[in-house]
Amino acid sequence: MIDRRIKFRHIQCFVEIARERSLKTAAEKLFLTQPAMSKTLKELEEIVGTTLMRRSRSGVDLTRPGEVFLHFARMSIASLQQGLDGIELEGRRQKDKLSVGALPSVAAHLMPLVVTEFARLAPNALLRILDGPHGYLTERLRVGELDLVIGRIGPSDTMQGISFTQLYDEQVVFVVRPGHPLLSDPDLRRVADWPVIYPPAGAAIRPLVEQFLIANGVGEFPNRLETVSGAFGRVHTRQSDCVWIISRGVVANEIAEGRLVALPFRTELTQGPVGLMTRPDHPETPVRQLFALAVTNVLAGKSAHMT
Description:
By secondary structure, the chain is of the alpha/beta class. The chain is built from eleven helices and twelve strands.
């Protein structure tokens, strides 16, 4: 539990002294006297019960406990600033715009819930959603047409210049319509007996699917159609005997409602991370932070529901 004797002025003064490495300069920056700064630092050290800083001829140096405390003190100030920015954003009348790319694995399953939560957190923000294959969306991110992308991590050559923050893991599934002949005798080697909807080149799951098939001694499917279109896959799979190889998130709703059935294949080898992709050189904004918070809240709610 945080000691209630620690006030914001203690944290602010400590961080400013560490930044300037000078009590005098830090005091000037905060419009305080040097004795007042010294007193505040002494109070903080008495509360935490250890020396955080030592004076030397070169200025003020952090002790080892001081280095540890500085890391979290900076985080606390940054978090408080983000909260203040969020309040300012919420109070604006004009629309703050956010452009988000959503890969198929999250567009149908996760995004509707995220959009609802984001609207609650930032009712004045204007959200634009673009879906498509991994390479297309990451390129839009690089050129600044998108603020962030949410979906599976791609091959290393497609992730150049992009930061990835993992949210959860997801596997590939093989789905068919209810009553499909394969359900009575589910054998991975027999999938080739039917038409297959297969991830195209450039799809994030393509390498994982190919590795899975090789590991199980399965060759290429001669009768296959390559697409990332979730709309087409849902309709065509329900209306035919094709087998659709796709990320579980794309068809999670259909599986839950019984409109599609996942074949009981062990596809752990296709498991891969899903997360938020951003440009490191793109400054963080309050509206982007609120979107990330909306994603976190939705995933936390899903996790609590499952437990």
